[in-house]
Amino acid sequence: MPTYGVLLATALIAALYTVVRLGRREGLDSGRLIDFSTWLIVTALLGAKVLMILTEWTFYREHPGQIFSVATLEAGGVFYGGFIAATFFGVWYIRSYKLPFWKVFDVYAPAIALGQSVGRLGCFSAGCDYGVPSHSFWAITFTSPFSHAMTGVPLGIPLFPWQIVDSIAELCIFGILLWRYKHKSRDGEIFLLYIVLYAVGRFLLEFLRGDPDRGFVFNHLLSTSQFIALLVLGVAAVLAFRWYGPGRKGEAGAGRSGGGVKVKAHLHSK
Q1: Closest C-alpha among 269, 190, 270 to residue 236
Q2: Pair 202, 225: CB distance under 8 Å
Q3: Where are the alpha helices (DSSP H) in the chain?
Q4: Going by C-beta distance under 8 Å and a sequence separation of 6 or more, which residues neighbour residue 157?
Q5: Fewer CB atoms near the end CB (10 Å): N or C, the chain?
Q6: pLDDT of residue 22
Q7: Phi and psi (nearest 5°) for 98?
Q8: Count of Cβ atoms closer than 10 Å to residue 30 Cβ
Q9: Tens of pLDDT, residues 131-184
Q10: Dihedrals φ, ψ of 139, to 5°?
């Protein structure tokens, strides 16, 4: 069995377990959450692959047959593509079934962080999403020709352990979210905290990525994920101002007791 696939499956199971546990604490139906999660996984995987194809469009334009190849099917894709697709789908699903909007988003935020943490170990095992050349004491060297053929990771060159560092960062975010969950002042706060922490962490860590196929914008000034991270921070700033801005302190606890909150927010693994 491929290590990458096993760890990806483990990540999904760990995330689903977290969703069910937190959902029960919030009084949400476990069966509904499992159904929702199944569709979220499918939507996220499709969205991740779509953004991966768009960021590597030069290659896929010259080799259109690769879009439906086994290699593309096995690739994890770009995380933000899956996140955005899942968010759009989530908004539709939650409103269709009249679930408490921000309460559900809060339940999923820690689960996503935990899933990412485990999933990055899969990236490490496969060699994808590798770091820049490094001579530090914790640099790692890949030697498997199979990994090189599948992911393009350089062989025999010490590299920054990007996948491990990102996994640790995601695990820290997971811990912070669980801690804050017990003290949140309103529904939606945990999701807001997650997107801020992840966007900041991803933006900074992207400077230590070494794989050139993740896509860039503004003449290689920013990677695709860095650009999306800035957009996400902009959305987070708008939400934070609406919830915690001047004259809104008295409304902080409103989201804890109400149902859904009406919003107009649009919202390899890479």
Answers
A1: 190
A2: yes
A3: 3-25, 30-55, 57-62, 70-74, 79-96, 101-126, 145-151, 162-181, 189-205, 224-244, 254-257
A4: 133, 141
A5: N
A6: 96
A7: 55, 45
A8: 12
A9: 999 998 999 999 999 889 888 899 999 999 999 999 999 999 999 999 999 899
A10: -65, 150
The structure tokens listed for 197 are 């922490």
Cβ neighbours of residue 99 closer than 8 Å, sequence gap 6 or more: 28, 32, 93, 260
- Rounded CA-CA distance 67/65 in Å is 5
Q: How far apart are CA 169 and CA 165, in angstroms?
A: 6
Q: What is the pTM for the complete model shown?
A: 0.82
Torsion of CA 234, 237, 239, 242, to 10 degrees: -130
Is the distance from CB of 218 to CB of 81 less than 8 angstroms? no
What does the pLDDT read at residue 45? 86
- What does the radius of gyration of the chain's CA atoms come to, in whole angstroms? 19
Q: How far apart are CA 269 and CA 267, in angstroms?
A: 20
CA distance 53 to 55: 6
Give ∠ CA 255-184-41 in degrees, rounded to 5. 80
Kindly write down the DSSP assignment for every residue of 226-259, as one continuous string: HHHHHHHHHHHHHHHHHHHSTT-GGGTTHHHHSS
